[in-house]
Amino acid sequence: MKKLKIFLDASAISNLYQDNMPNEMADMKTLWNMIEQGEYEMVFSTLVEHELSRIADPQKNAIIKDYIDQIGCEPCELTTEMEDIANLIIKHGILKQKDYNDCMHIACAMVTGCDCLVSYNFDDINNVKTMKGVRTISLLQGYGDIDIVTAASLIKKGDKK
């Protein structure tokens, strides 16, 4: 079976150290271990890297950076193709101009051929309206099917430690 390719946005990666959300933190740590073990192929972008670098808490910032360094995954560069997709998402009213970075996360996941986008941004990305619109644009633009999920959706029962 083909290994799933997953895009992690900043809200997902930041949950690796999120004491006020212990269940989500545990799920992300389990998913991260699965990525390290090669069960999933991980993608994140330079935009995600930039967003994570702006975490105000220096301890959390250092811990998140250590996680990323341990996995050895380089962020993908943003392209004009991704900008075009982000603008389509806005043009079709799926998200607003103020959500441009979120549109770029979605576009990056599409263009890099990800099967899933992992996000805890329920206001803008991980909700039914956005999921339906993104899936429609992705299919119409020839990128294939993409799901927007939380880490819990990718963890098989019994994988939590």
Instruction: Based on Cα principal axes, name the global outline.
Output: globular
Classification by helices and strands: alpha/beta
Radius of gyration using CA atoms only: 15 Å
**Strand line-up in the sheet with most strands:** 2-1-3-4
What is the terminal separation in angstroms?
Answer: 25 Å
Low-confidence stretches: none
State the helical fraction: 40-55%
- The total count of strands amounts to 4
Order of helices and strands: EHHEHHHHEHE
Q: Figure out the total of helices.
A: 7
Mean pLDDT: 92
CATH superfamily annotation: 5'-nuclease
Q: What is the domain tally?
A: 1
Quickly give the CATH architecture: 3-Layer(aba) Sandwich
Give the amount of beta strand, in percent: 5-15%
Largest sheet: 4 strands, parallel
Determine the CATH topology.
Rossmann fold
CATH class: Alpha Beta
Which key features would you list for this structure?
single chain, 161 residues, alpha/beta, Rossmann fold, four-stranded parallel beta sheet, 49% helix, 9% strand, globular
Entry summary:
Helices cover 49% and strands 9% of the residues.
Structural description of this entry:
This protein is α/β, with parallel strands linked by helices and 161 residues long. The chain has helices at 10-14, 22-36, 46-53, 58-71, 80-91, 100-111, 128-140; strands spanning 4-8, 40-43, 116-118, 147-149. A four-stranded parallel sheet has the order 2-1-3-4, sandwiched between helices. Strand 3, helix 7 (128-140) and strand 4 (147-149) form a beta-alpha-beta unit. Helix 5 packs across helix 6 (100-111). The protein starts with a strand and ends in a 12-residue tail after the last strand.
